[in-house]
Amino acid sequence: MTRRPVLVPSFWAVAAATAVATALLSAVPVARAADSRAPEKVVRGKYLVSTSGCHDCHTPFKLGPNGPEPDMARALSGHPQALVMPPAPQLPPGPWLVTTAATNTAFAGPWGVSFTANLTPDADTGLGQWSLKNFMDTIRTGRHLGRGRAVLPPMPIPVYNNFTDDDLEAVYSYLRTIPPISNRVPEPLPPAQATAAK
Hints:
Structural class: mainly alpha
Number of domains: 1
Largest sheet: 3 strands, antiparallel
Strand content: 5-15%
Oligomer: single chain
């Protein structure tokens, strides 16, 4: 009978294995702590979206038993793509400045016509391709993706700039959890005077 040699691990092999095991095990509480914060962020984000008027414009209104109300089946999907708006009515000179679609998703004023964005995580028509940085840059700069066209009224960018970075991350986290709705919102239109001058 031949004897097999007994393999005794070297000091360095044992030390390396111990270091790897320690690193893996010490990462578990950190990962768990981050995971446990995620639901808190989503809950906070839902609260902020629900109390900051986001549904007032980004969720199309429908006629309910008590008058216009947000159509929560289309929550935060923006101006309905099927609702092609006619030219905005010309207001007479005076204190009236803005006209609004019955859905409360299209607004005409001195800036032209703006349509509320699709905030759902739909990859093609909503915020599905947006990173947290894209979202935060849009709010912080008042420009689409932080570098594109201006975000137009009635979006209250000066008000939302009071949100902390944690608040904006919470809103973004919540928006990632809502059902995606495919709804391509039209691009804004220039003011009527600019169009007539061309």
